[in-house]
Amino acid sequence: MYTSPNASLLETVSHRTEFLPISFHHTKVIPGAEQVLYLHWHNEVEFLLIKQGGATFYIEDQEYTLQTGDAIFVPPNLLHMAKSLDENACEFYAIVFSHNYLFDTSFNPHYVKYVSPVMNYSLRCPLLLTPAVSWHKDIIETLIKMYELSQYCVDQWELQMQGMLLIIWQSIYNNHLSKIEASNKLSKRSIQLENAMNYIHNSYNEDITLRKLAAMTCLSEGQFCRLFKLLTGVTPFSYINRYKVIKSCEYLENTQKKIAEIASLCGFNNISYYNREFMKYIKMTPSSYRYMVMDFGGK
What we know:
Keywords: DNA-binding, Transcription, Transcription regulation. The protein is α+β, with helices and mostly antiparallel strands.
């Protein structure tokens, strides 16, 4: 899926407010450049909107084709990248924001209902938006308006921007997320997994056993595995290994630690197994990923 970075990628605008957890980017890729967006992930939510040209976006193991005017919703913590569809120029906007910009605490009942499913079950939540669908078109038009507003002083749009995001989120919930919840009974059954999910995220570098996870949910091991896959789309240990690999990317990006040490810090006791799992999810070796990030100057 991944090819080597292309130096022709030019990010022309990178606007981040000083006090708000939201940023706006405008990227142009010259004709003939294959790479549109390098493989990466982050903790924030992202909307990407194609202004000109076309691109194929890869989110984890899913592929989405976007043409001029299309947009895509990328939930947090998902690996994603993009390639140009053809030899023509490609231009796109990106709006990246923290989920805390919507609701500032997980104790907020609105957060639990509207945001928690995306945070915990993000693999099921990416969404391609096209102007041919009425409610998609409304979101796309709002995203364009948001980017236009971002070019002005923050005092002129601070409250309006948050309100526009909430309107977008309500639409996505009504037409997309709620259907995922209904089909998987997330709204009721996801609570059973909350302690186990938190434990995985906080203790990923420890020896996590199926027995311990099942005990946290008051389910048998078999029941836990079935519920976990129903809600996340993957098995518990596939989820854990993927999470370990993603966390190891942070060390590769931000430290000079040896790869063997990083593997150990992230709960892999065998470097060969770590390399296999890294290749499985990132589609390159850990050292290649580190060099790629260095070539791009970091995220």
